[in-house]
Design goal:
alpha+beta; 22 strands
């Protein structure tokens, strides 16, 4: 019996290779279709798996939450940082409900290991790593005695790149911010705190002055077993009465905080993959139907010679599985090459998620193989079932002509491809229009020709007076190298966040308005081309020798002074506990995103309130390389230990602002899959009509011989094509209404499919359908009756 089974298998394999070799064009088309679709799909599935389904490298990450406060009038806002004294009260109040730790990111200059370099550093409370369940791979974690001492733990990447994987690194010193720090530990290779990726970690050390000033920290908590986050919010809310705007304690799971906006984007990419795979396997099923029609006589003869139905079905299934196996193998090889590129393009703009390693692992391979196997069986089922039920006499009489049921199945499949192609094309136009509308919104400044370069002054060696002197000298030097007034400083540029908020009111004790506070130097208004509404901007005379002065935005002026003239009035800045004179009113600038309402803004003079970390903004018509080299040269001339880092153009800042990257990635992805759908749909239509012409050669020959008009033959074929395209467009239009609603809920597009989207998608599909049908129609009317009838 075993020998018989082996013999049957050998016969099946011989039939398989012979049949595949007889139609190399269709086999190649099937393999290319599957490999392109599965390769692109596997790459995106790998990204989705790494971000959405791979937990962060912490012990029981589902028990970790970020704790903060949100304004009462912004319940959907992310939890904000709190002052360190509030965190200490929270930690005592949490009791048995949760364990709380704090962290705060900063940047420090590394010296002593070659050229000065700016590093990302995170200061943490000593129990931070124990809370996450992470132990160092070398050395020890922080201890209570480390508070106030210059000690540090290194990331594995920093230890490998900067210290050449020195096995004796424990006890060595590195100089951060002009202060030597002793290395006490190295973190594991797979550890990554994606909320604030860092090279170096230090214990938080809060001075009494910092505590009084309200040193802000982010708070992470590990909930006790069976304790919901709402219980922790209620307990902390009882003791949290910050002297700020009405706020409430809020929590968000760490996993959710990490994925952020990437979650919705990747879900849509996964949906695009599903649609692309649906098209690919629909086209594949149509190809199998055509192959079974072409082989009608062969299968009929085999049945007449005694082949059982199960043997015929098995042979057709084996062919389908072989084609899918070859397409899947090619797709996996393509995915191995595409995945790093896809991961970079999809995630580079999405915070800490971009740091994850994305690879085609066994889970992704298993998913792709399972989908391919299931679809191979489903796609082969219809032609196999039809072939096994054919009458021998009917098959020999029909030859290669398709039965009406088979022809209807093939046309339904192509109409389905057209419907999915319509949906993808609609998605492209919806997201594309949303992207163009977003980029057309005014950010409140002119980004053309403006560069931003960051420089940070060590607090240990730069007092306020020395910082002001450094910035003033640097501006004078650059004014001499460039056009005067082409350079200015600010502590944070627009569209990078709205941190540094403060309550602003008409006086102490009065109801305040929350505003974003920026520290800007003379000339900033001119460099950024922010419109001056009234008054003036800062000059060199607005320094520490003069009274505190402030420039406010129009929205803040309207909130505080209504219809009164604000210039010359005074306002109270709660964060600095001082009154400041309003000297000017300027236009609105967007700090968070292009599609969000601008926040009220107060600008302080950088010569009165200097920031140790400042951004140099420079507008120049000279080449960017010359501008960057000149600024670095002047900074090095003043202090050779200061690196100039994070160089970017403001146009790049706009391109990377929230909302823009996700739309760009979705537009590119849907465009790629839409083009694939369009090509496959066109091939499917062409295949139907080419096969129809080939199988109806005798009929067409007789009609032409009897005087049938060529226009009538072409018209009948165009009607068939229009029926398939029209039905696909109709179904796709209904599906597009639902897609538009989904995009609207995610804030990526309007809640309706507009005329432009429908017109573009429908016109594209009509042109593709005509391009597929006309060659077959032209071939039909050129049929020579004598040759066609003689060959039969």
């Amino acid at each position: 019996m075993l020998a018989a089974m082996r013999g049957d298998m050998l016969v099946d394999l011989l039939h398989l290779f012979r049949n595949l070799r007889r139609s190399p064009a269709s086999v190649t088309a099937a393999i290319l279709t599957l490999s392109l679709t599965l390769g692109a799909g596997a790459s995106i599935v790998a990204v989705v798996d790494a971000v959405l389904f791979t937990p962060p490298p912490f012990a029981n990450p589902d028990a970790l939450v970020i704790v903060g406060v949100t304004p009462v009038d912004e319940p959907a806002a992310s939890p904000r940082r709190v002052n360190y004294p509030i965190f200490e009260v929270w930690r005592e109040r949490a009791g048995l409900l949760a364990t709380l730790e704090a962290y705060e990111g900063t940047n420090l200059t590394l010296t002593g290991l070659g050229a000065a370099e700016r590093l990302s550093v995170t200061d943490v409370t000593t129990g931070f790593f124990n809370l996450l369940g992470v132990a160092p791979s070398m050395g020890r974690p922080f201890e209570a005695d480390d508070v106030g001492r210059p000690v540090a733990m290194l990331s594995h990447g920093f230890w490998r790149a900067q210290l050449a994987s020195d096995p004796n690194v424990i006890g060595r010193q590195i100089v951060l911010g002009s202060q030597p720090h002793t290395i006490v530990g190295v973190l594991p290779a797979r550890f990554l705190f994606e909320l604030n990726p860092s090279d170096v970690w230090r214990p938080i050390s809060i001075t009494p002055d910092q505590a009084r000033a309200g040193y802000p920290v982010s708070v992470v908590a590990r909930l006790a077993p069976d304790v919901p986050s709402t219980s922790l919010e209620a307990a902390l809310g009882e003791v949290s009465r910050p002297a700020g705007p009405p706020a409430r304690v809020a929590t968000i799971p760490v996993v959710t905080a990490i994925t952020g906006s990437a979650s919705s984007m990747l879900s849509l990419l996964a949906a695009a993959v599903a649609l692309a795979m649906l098209i690919a396997f629909t086209n594949f099923a149509g190809l199998l139907i055509v192959r079974s029609i072409d082989r009608r006589r062969e299968l009929a003869v085999r049945s007449a010679l005694g082949a059982r139905r199960s043997e015929i079905v098995r042979q057709l299934l084996l062919e389908a599985l072989a084609l899918v196996a070859m397409g899947t193998a090619s797709g996996v090889l393509l995915a191995l090459w595409m995945t790093p590129v896809a991961a970079t393009l999809a995630l580079e703009q999405f915070g800490g998620v971009a740091q994850r390693e994305v690879a085609v692992n066994w889970q992704v391979l298993a998913f792709v193989a399972a989908v391919a196997l299931m679809c191979a069986c489903l796609c082969a089922l219809l032609p196999a079932r039809a072939a096994s039920r054919r009458s021998v006499v009917d098959a020999l009489r029909r030859g290669a002509t398709a039965a009406p049921a088979e022809l209807r199945s093939r046309r339904v499949l192509v109409a389905g491809e057209v419907a999915v192609a319509f949906v993808l094309l609609t998605c492209v136009t919806l997201v594309g229009q949303s992207l163009f509308r977003l980029l057309a919104m005014s950010p409140g400044f002119d980004a053309r020709g403006v560069l931003a370069l960051q420089v940070s002054l060590p607090g240990a060696s730069y007092s306020d007076e020395r910082a002001v002197s450094f910035y003033s000298t640097l501006q004078s030097a650059l004014d001499g190298r460039f056009r005067p007034g082409s350079m200015a400083i600010v502590n944070e540029i627009p569209l990078t966040g709205d941190t540094g908020r403060s309550l602003v009111s008409l006086g102490p004790g009065e109801i305040g308005r929350e505003a974003v506070v920026r520290e800007a130097g003379p000339g900033y208004l001119d460099v950024m081309r922010i419109p001056l509404v009234s008054g003036r901007f800062f000059t060199a005379s607005d320094n520490s020798a003069g009274p505190p002065r402030v420039v406010i935005s129009e929205s803040l002026a309207a909130r505080l002074f209504a219809n009164e003239r604000p210039v010359g009035r005074q306002i109270w800045l709660a964060a600095r506990s001082q009154l400041a004179e309003v000297i000017g009113v300027v236009g609105e600038v967007k700090h968070r995103a292009l599609d969000e309402l601008p926040m009220p803004t107060a600008y302080l003079s950088a010569l009165q309130s200097p920031s140790r970390s400042s951004i140099i903004v420079s507008r120049s018509s000279r080449p960017e390389g010359d501008v960057i080299a000149t600024i670095r040269e002047e900074v090095a001339r003043l202090d050779s230990s200061l690196p100039v880092y994070r160089v970017r153009s403001l146009q790049d800042v706009i391109s990377a602002s929230p909302g823009v990257p996700v739309r760009r990635v979705l537009t590119a992805t849907f465009m790629g899959f839409a083009l694939l759908a369009l090509v496959l749909g066109t091939i499917g239509l062409f295949g139907i009509f080419a096969h129809d012409v080939a199988s109806r050669r005798v009929e067409l020959a007789l009609r032409i011989a009897l005087g049938a008009d060529s226009a009538r033959i072409v018209s009948s074929m165009l009607k068939q094509g229009a029926m398939m395209v029209g039905s696909g467009v109709a179904v796709g239009g209904v599906l597009s209404l639902w897609i538009a609603r989904v995009f609207s809920e995610l804030g990526l597009a309007t809640d309706r499919v507009d005329g432009l989207s429908v017109t573009v998608a429908a016109t594209t599909l009509v042109i593709a359908g005509a391009a597929a049908v006309l060659p077959a129609a032209r071939r039909a009317v050129r049929t020579d009756p004598l040759i066609a009838l003689r060959s039969e």
